[in-house]
Amino acid sequence: MKRIRSGSALLLAAMLWASAAFAWSFGVCGDSRNDRNGVFPRILAAVSDSDMEFLLHTGDLERPGGTRSWAAFKAKTADFRKPLHVTVGNHEIHGGTREEFARFFGLPAASYGFTHKNVRFIVLDNAEGTLPAPLLAWLERELAAHPKGKNGIDRLVVAMHIPPQTDGIFPHGTKTGYAEQSVHLLKILLKAKVDLVLCSHEHMQMVDDWSGIKVIVSGGAGAPIIPFQKYGFYRIDVTAKGIRETFRPIPKTAPRPGK
Ligand SMILES: [Fe+2]
User: Fold this and answer.
1) Model's pTM, two decimal places?
2) Ligand 1 center to residue 86 CA distance, Å?
3) 131 C-alpha vs ligand 1 centroid, how far in Å?
4) Per residue in 135-188, pLDDT tens?
5) Residue 193 burial (10 A CB sphere; 0-12, 13-18, 19+)
6) How far is the C-alpha of 256 from the C-alpha of 249, rounded, in Å?
7) Domain 25-249 bears CATH identifier 3.30.1330.60
8) CA 239 to ligand 1 center in whole angstroms
9) Cα(114) to centroid of ligand 1, in Å?
């Protein structure tokens, strides 16, 4: 009996170790333009000084202005030693083109994919407030090429600057037909069993359930925040049990690092 008990304890310990070993986390933020309160540098510092493995920025990095603005963003993030994945936002295509943006940040295109550990990320360019059919067809092909449960992929995450239109989110600055395009997007996400959609553009923090798909809007990295909302970012934990988000506020009134 004693041997059975110690065997069970060992098995439990091994299971806990395995689950902890495969758990990892990353940060997500958006809308760091016009950052008058030094929020974005404190987000970079918080991710740097943590076990979060990278930062995903969901767009509107800087004021409009093309290469000059992107260079300012690069200068601000020069000391950040972890990977920083960027998304093209509507501000990025004012004063610059999406092709220039992709070239500047060394991306294959403004819409692109990358794999980190057991998660496939797909970053979509919807900076113009549309989800055109060719973009959604590309997304469908990307998801088909990296299906869940194959080649080490356990989770699927889609990032895009402008949130989809859901029952609870009505993004501004979208073009006619965005509601129907969002439904088309939802069908694709459901078919591939996508776990999470990450976006910003609305200067607020919000978690929505979109027919079973979690949508996180994190638009508080420095741009003027809407009333009763907080600056900050989300920590996303990827565990054997699923994906869990934790909002990390960055108080506007806190002292800046080194001051
Ligand atoms: Fe935006």
Assistant:
1) 0.91
2) 13
3) 15
4) 999 999 999 999 999 999 999 999 999 999 999 999 999 999 999 999 999 999
5) middle
6) 14
7) no
8) 30
9) 23
